[in-house]
Design goal:
Elements lengths: L1 H19 L3 E9 L2 E15 L2 E12 L2 E14 L4 E12 L10 E10 L2 E10 L8 E8 L15
Antiparallel strand pairs: 1-2, 1-8, 2-3, 3-4, 4-5, 5-6, 6-7, 7-8
């Protein structure tokens, strides 16, 4: 019984730590399992609004020496049983990719990790639509530090 209670407490702490402070930008990369040494730049931005959390994903890649990007609105789901955060791309809202590149929405299943005072989301990705094979691989993101306050800026009170 004590083990069940302890497990429930640890699970609650882990899930709560996922939901407490996601706001901000998480930058990193993902790879494809077929090419483990080739990574694509990837970031997730969590924006807190009165109506809830807005989640944007941005993928950047080079193709023929030109940088391309795609920004998507994504949905977020917290799986309390597995203590994971699932981010699923739903709709492309901005992009500079050529017309011949097909949209390939992804689903990222991520674990929240704190190491040496830094916050990470690590896990794996796969196609959001299983009828289209977009690949699969590893996702690694680190929370971008909030900008340090400018000591030269004066508060309105001064």
């Amino acid at each position: 019984m004590k083990n069940i209670i302890l497990s429930a407490i640890l699970l609650s702490i882990s899930v709560n730590s996922i939901t407490q402070d996601l706001t901000g930008v998480w930058k990193g990369r993902f790879n494809e399992s077929v090419s483990t040494d080739s990574y694509t730049s990837f970031e997730i931005e969590f924006i807190k609004r009165d109506s809830g959390m807005v989640v944007l994903t941005k993928t950047c890649f080079l193709l023929q020496e030109k940088k391309y990007f795609t920004v998507c609105i994504s949905k977020m789901k917290i799986d309390k049983q597995k203590t994971t955060l699932v981010i699923t791309e739903m709709e492309k809202v901005n992009s500079n990719t050529p017309e011949w590149i097909r949209d390939c929405f992804q689903k990222h299943t991520l674990y929240y990790i704190v190491k040496n005072g830094k916050e990470f989301l690590k896990g794996y990705w796969e196609s959001a639509n299983h009828s289209i094979n977009c690949g699969k691989g590893i996702t690694e993101l680190e929370k971008e530090a909030a900008p340090a306050p400018n000591p030269e800026m004066k508060s309105p009170e001064n």
